[in-house]
Amino acid sequence: MKIIYEDENIRVIDKPAGVNSDDFERRVHRLDKDTSGILLIAKNDETLSFLQKQFKERKVEKKYIALIVGHLKSEKSEVETLLGRAPNDRRKQKAFPLQGPESEGKRQAKTTFRVLQSFENYDLIEAEPHTGRKHQIRAQLTYLGHPIAGDKLYGFKGQLCPKGLNRQFLHSNYLKIQLPSGEIKKFTSELPTDLKLCLPN
Q1: Active site residue: 7, 23, 32, 34, which one?
Q2: Is 77:112 a contact under the CB 8 Å cutoff?
Q3: What is the C-alpha separation between 142 and 41, in angstroms, rounded?
Q4: C-alpha span between 11 and 187 (Å, rounded)
Q5: d(CA 196, CA 41)
Q6: Helix (H, G, I), strand (E, B) or coil at 190
């Protein structure tokens, strides 16, 4: 597994798709099993607490690359919804409007989406979550009517999928955080080959 950065307190790895982030001791945050990219691991409990506090206080900057079905209405949009467990499928989260009869017990979720490149049937986008809810990006894109390509859990029945894509097209490509030393570090990860090869021509 590729190591992006390592010092006495942390290890930053480029997690491949298919690997469960819960398998890593002292992981600071989580990525879905079929999401690839930057995963931060603490080497001691003090560092773990220090870094997790930043995630909790929303001081960490995270960005993802996704290929979505269809086209977003605008090149940049900020989406704010509530998120809660999907009533008909316990594996899923569902996005709800901020105000409404179903708002009780739901948690606020906010993401900025930017279009990077448009293809005939898809948009390649950058997603920057400002909250850290489970399946936040995937659920909100489905709510917008543009699920992530290859997403078997959140996709629509019979939706388009690029040839050769065997998982959701979602990759954690950027993370900015303060280290215990006080230094602000930025980590980046290139789009993996399996996703590059699936980009439409």
Answers
A1: 32
A2: yes
A3: 30
A4: 11
A5: 26
A6: coil
Structure tokens at 4: 């992006």
Q: Which of 5, 4, 28 is nearest to 16 (CA)?
A: 4
Q: Are strands 36-42 and 170-178 parallel, antiparallel or unpaired?
A: parallel
Is 32 an annotated catalytic residue?
Answer: yes
Dist. CA 51–CA 54, nearest whole Å: 5
Of 188, 175, 187, residue with least CA distance to 54: 175
Q: How many residues does the chain have?
A: 201
Instruction: Count CB neighbours of 13 within 10 A.
Output: 22
Longest alpha-carbon distance in the chain: 50
- ∠ CA(36), CA(42), CA(47), 5° rounding? 140
User: pLDDT by residue (tens digit) across 9-58?
Assistant: 999 999 999 999 999 999 999 999 999 999 999 999 999 999 999 999 99
Query: What is the pTM for the complete model shown?
Result: 0.95
Report the alpha-carbon distance of residue 171 to residue 47 in Å, rounded. Answer: 25
How is residue 99 written in tokens? Answer: 């105000």
